[in-house]
Amino acid sequence: MKIIVVGTGYVGLVSGTCLAETGVHVTCVDIDKSKIEKLSKGIIPIYEPGLEPMVLRNVEKNRLVFSTSMKESLPDAAVIFIAVGTPPGEDGSADLRYVLEVAREIGQHMNDYKLVVTKSTVPVGTSKKIRETIRKELDKRQVKIKFDVASNPEFLKEGAAVQDFLKPDRIVLGLESENAKKILNRLYHPFMLTGHRIVYMDIASAEFTKYAANCMLATKISFMNDLANLCERVGADINSVREGIGSDPRIGNKFIFAGIGYGGSCFPKDVKALIKTATDAGYDLRVMQAVDQVNNLQKEVLFNKILSHYKGDLKNKIFGIWGLSFKPNTDDIREAPSLVIIRKLLEYGAQVRVYDPVAMDETRKILGERVSYGLDVYDTLIDANGLLLLTEWTEFRILNYNLLSKIMKEKTIFDGRNIYEPAEVIEKGFAYFGIGRKVSGK
What is this structure's pTM? Predict the structure, then answer.
């Protein structure tokens, strides 16, 4: 079977590569000529554990190829996956221009039956627009060619996307025909051998399921962050609360860690898009509005602690920041809380030094030379007035207190992810500030 995956971002590149791993011939198509040239040379544009060797292996075996031409790639393909971006508009709605442009090209160049599958995160009703767009182009050509449209939302976690695709906990398929079901069952059969299941539903429900899943996870995060802020006021510790409620199987222990808010390419965008969908449908989605509001405020909570500790005077103070990406194991800094905090520090006249294992280049594209970039973890903290832990990379988890005492100007730690034990930090002579922790300060 030959397939096309349109879009070479996180979703498209991971999906195409993992499908090629099963022996399927995959052509990844993207309009970005530079990106395609780099991919063809084995240069991977994103950081995703396990992805690079898999890309190189499948390119070598000629199961994975890259192209900028839909017209040239389309004739032999049975399935086309649409995995292009759907960036948020100013009103929070998902921008479908790239999705519908792909649909137009399919209609312009298809010569026989095709199954068009949407993997991009799209609002309910998008598949109908795709169908209408393809049919309109076929009508212009005055040809009648059968095709099917399906929805196959992705549930990949950045930093674990390869494993999520190879060993999915479920695959959601929105279908309207038995032929589409047969084709996708065959394509996904290799991933179902360990007993994971395919969940079948109508297309509208599949489109909605993606938003519902991300918004539920975002809700858990904002809920815990809201509780963390209350914990500080009533003398409770959010880590203890988390352990207490996380042991309840009805709640579970995932996505209930308090911190400085969620970021990335999915949760912020999808929450806003679902709110806009509700508004367009004449419904006030109040829970999601609160989730979004809490998250926006949470990104400034740690900065407010810094401002309070230094009594509003941050001018020329030096802050060393550990972690820039919105979460570990990715170089993605889209909507990252770190950017909000850094900009606030700069606004108040502070000097900022940053270090991240993989996200420095992406940060430089946005912040340029407004901040300085550390050579390593501890180089970032020389003469620093404070350490800010913003992303919980594994290499940040154990502190060298002796070295910190020697190189830092002030022994102060702002723990935005609650990965350090306050009692231990204070015992070593440092001031400690976390999120919702019972012990703050010194």
Answer: 0.92
